[in-house]
Amino acid sequence: MWFRFYEEKFFITAWETGYYKNDLKNGLWLEYYENGNIRSKAEYFNGRLSEQRYRFSIDGDTLLPILIKPKLLPNIITATNDETLEDDTLIMNNTDLKVYLLLDLEDSIVKLIGKRFRIEGIYSICQNDYLTITTGDINIKVTPTGTIIYEQFDTICNKKIADKFGTNVKVKVLKDGDYEVIPEYGKKRFKSRLGKIEVDRQSGCIDTGRNPIKITRNSKTLLFNDIGNLVFFEFDSDNDGKKELYILTYFTCMGRLEFYKVDDK
Hints:
Blueprint: E1 2-8, E2 11-21, E3 24-33, E4 38-45, E5 48-49, E6 54-56, E7 62-64, E8 66-68, E9 71-72, E10 76-78, E11 89-93, E12 98-104, H1 108-116, E13 124-127, E14 131-135, E15 138-143, E16 146-151, E17 164-167, E18 169-173, E19 179-183, E20 186-192, E21 195-205, E22 208-210, E23 213-217, E24 220-224, E25 229-235, E26 244-251, E27 256-263
Antiparallel strand pairs: 1-2, 2-3, 3-4, 4-5, 4-6, 6-7, 8-16, 9-12, 10-11, 11-24, 12-27, 13-14, 14-15, 15-16, 17-25, 18-19, 20-21, 21-22, 21-23, 23-24, 25-26, 26-27
């Protein structure tokens, strides 16, 4: 049996317990806060994590994994006082499309996760048992009932989502092996099941462009105005034969990640 204590100025601030068998972790491993509440728990088999590690706050709230239910947004959303937009309208929807917020790091418990775990730009978008998005220390799994956030380990990508689009930078590899990031500006157009898509690529802060995205459907429009670095793609998450449109936006300079779903069902 293994005990590890963490101390600061001669006071125990946390501790960890678990079992080794043949020099490999086996069985249940627990980490504790100084108040005795569990910080994390994980089950190992011959040195390998056998399932998801569970993380908790010092007050006992579940940090990871956690299910975030989709939130149906109103047709018009205006900016709050902390937004810095030329236009104070964040979303304007005149179409029959429905917009769902799947994830926003500014939301309560999700904001706490963002402080505890490194969340960066989108690393990969994979089709495993469900749609899985890897970003920094966490994975985002999209299921018909909601978005599950869990800690990222060695993610296996069974199939990469091919029809994804990214804007607004182009990476040029130089002869010496280095690379140059070239910003791209102007409007770019795409087609989707839900309508015609137009992205207006603009300048932003040093590492985040502004990419307002507009969907035109039956001569009416759905506009997302407050969009930073952008990846969007179509995917059929509920296996009904009709793909939904997913929009991921990441503001690098603010460490802000948002994830939307657009659907006509």
